Every structure is written in structure tokens, then in C-alpha cells.
Amino acid sequence: xxxxxxxxxxxxxxxxxQGQPFKVSGQIFSSGVDSVYLSQQxxxxxxxxxxxxxxxxxxxxxxxxxxxxxxxxxRVGQNNLNLVxxxxxxxxxxxxxxxxxxFCNFVNAxxxxxxxxxxxxxxxxxxxxDSALNAIKLDATKEAQINAYMTQEYSQFQTALQSFVGMYSxxxxxxxxxxxxQIDQDFESYEKLIVPLxxxxxxxxxxxxxxxxxxxxxxxxxxxxxxxRGKLVPDFEELRTDGKKKMKLSDLQGQVVLxxxxxxxxxxxxxxxxxxVKNYQKYKDAGFTVMSVSLDSxxxxxxxxxxxxQLSWPNHVSDLGGWKSKVAQQYGVNSIPFTILLDKEGRVIxxxxxxxxxxxxxxxxxxx
Length: 368
Known about the structure:
Blueprint (H helix, E strand, L loop, with lengths): L19 E10 L5 E8 L2 E9 L5 E8 L3 E7 L2 E7 L5 E6 L7 E4 L2 H29 L4 H25 L7 H5 L7 H15 L3 H20 L12 E3 L6 E3 L7 E7 L4 H17 L4 E7 L4 H10 L7 E2 L8 H5 L7 E5 L5 E4 L3 H12 L2
Parallel strand pairs: 1-7, 11-12, 12-13
Antiparallel strand pairs: 1-4, 2-3, 2-5, 5-6, 7-8, 9-10, 11-14, 14-15
Helix pairs in contact: 1-2, 4-5, 6-9
């Protein structure tokens, strides 16, 4: 059984910036240690900045000046508590050293509390997953039953993660769910977290480093993507519905164009057509049009679908080559529906806008 985990990594980067006064104090009883440390983690090692003895009753106090606002760790033996230190507001922490995961309170440190909430959520899931794996090892005949149960548990875990991101969308705590996403494997999800995280806590050298890496990755992806926003798409010429006259994409320059690759046999394409028609009717007099490139091979079915779906714009073209359509091959289209929204100069605004997303984008462009 394969189970996915979300891990927290405090990214290795030395704190930069101006000095940041801080104070962290509190009481952690039954910790079993004689000192606590304020640190940052660099890979598998820690850099300790300040240390404080912890009394028999668990009292401690750390204060001084740090390199700058950032993420830090309060180390209590084998327990690590994540802290966001933004300013000189005194932070207090109270907890049971025998089980800091479940019994720990943060005062004047809401984002640190949120980070701890995430750690608890993630740790509970990992405990369930580990238990499931052990149960399968003990009795392989229960694998299907356990897999079914864990599929439901994983769905609930993912729902909880989405809820966390939604509740704390403007918080420095977003670095924790971000750390569970590989930018090269799920760029869109990574982007949805790194952008608000940067807006929330760009004073952090760690966040600055992550954001700069994101920008470099985005730049590389855009350079490799022929349909990245702002790029000019290649012109083409293709036959109209009469099979004799041709038209070019560039004939429509000066209008906002939805270039729509579709076919009469494509169910999702036909399902989206009413939305395209609605938006065409609303914005055609304002400078919006559609150019439909069909991947049909049967002319009668193509024309019948145009009539049935009331695709009233005049810009319908096809060489009736099906998947071997010259235009589709030129544009690298390997699945439909596929759309590209172009500005008046033929530059990409967005790709694959459907439903409400298309309507909202056109509203932004035309102002109504």
C-alpha cells in the first residue's frame, strides 16, 4: 500500500537582514532537560543562537537580538516547536514536556500556534498511516480492508489540509503545507501557496529564498511553454466550412479571440459550447470573437454540430484531418477541448478557460 505523507522541512538558509530583538519565555514542566535552545535547522543539523536553563518547575527565558524576522525552532530535548518571530512582541509558551505535541499553548504568537496546529494534524495522519502499514505486515489478508479504510482517512486528511490553507491564507504558517509540495511535480499547487506566503512574510530570508526559486522556476517554465501568458502564438491558415475558402488567425487581429480546438464527437467540447455561445453573444459587439478549429474527419457531422449548438460566429475551420489536423499538430494539441484566449495583438491571455473562469476573464477585459 502506498501512502503519501506531508513532511515539514525548515529550509536551510542563514538569516539575513537587520537585527530583530526578541523574547521567548514560558513554562514547560516535566521536560527532562536542563536547557532549551532557540535555533534554526540546516538540513539535518541545527544552529543554536540562544540557550536558557530550564528550572525544576519548567520556567525558562530567552532574549536577545536575531539576524531578522524569520522562522525559528524552540528545541526542548527531542521536541522542536516552530516559531514565527516577526517583531519584538514577547512570546510565551506553556506545555507538558511529556507530550508537547498535544499539550502546548502559545501566547502572543498566533502564527506559531497555527504552525503547531498543522504539525499536530500531520503527525496524527502519519501515526494512522504507520499503524495501517504495521497492521498489513501482521496480517496481509486484511490489506484490501485496511486500504479501503485508509483511502477514506486520507481523503479526510486532505480536506483538513485544504481547510487549514483556507483559514490561514494570509499567514506565515503556509510554509508548512508548502513544504509538502515538490515544485517540479505540482507547480500550480506550489504557486497557490508561495505567492500569498511571500505577501504575508517577505521579511523572512527563508521565504525570500523560496520565492526567488519559485520565480526562477516559473521563468523557466514560461520559456518552455509556447502558450505562456504574453507570448505571441503562431499564425496559421485553414479551410472554412465550404472547403474552398481559407482564413488566417491573423485575420482576426484587433479583436480578443478565443481559439477553440474541438470536434463534434467530443462530449466535453459540446458541453462547453453553450457557455462559449453565451459569452460570444454578450461580448461580440465589444470586440470579442471565437475561432473554432475542428478535429472532425466527417464534414456532415461537423456542420451538423455547428448548427445544433448554434455556434453563430463565422470563424470555423478544419482540414477534416481528425487528430492529424495540421493546425492541431502545429499547436501541439493532444487533447480537447483546448482553448487559448488571445488579446488584440494575438498574445496569450490564458489557456483552457471554461465555464465561470472564461466569463470572469472576459468581464475583467471588457468591464461588464
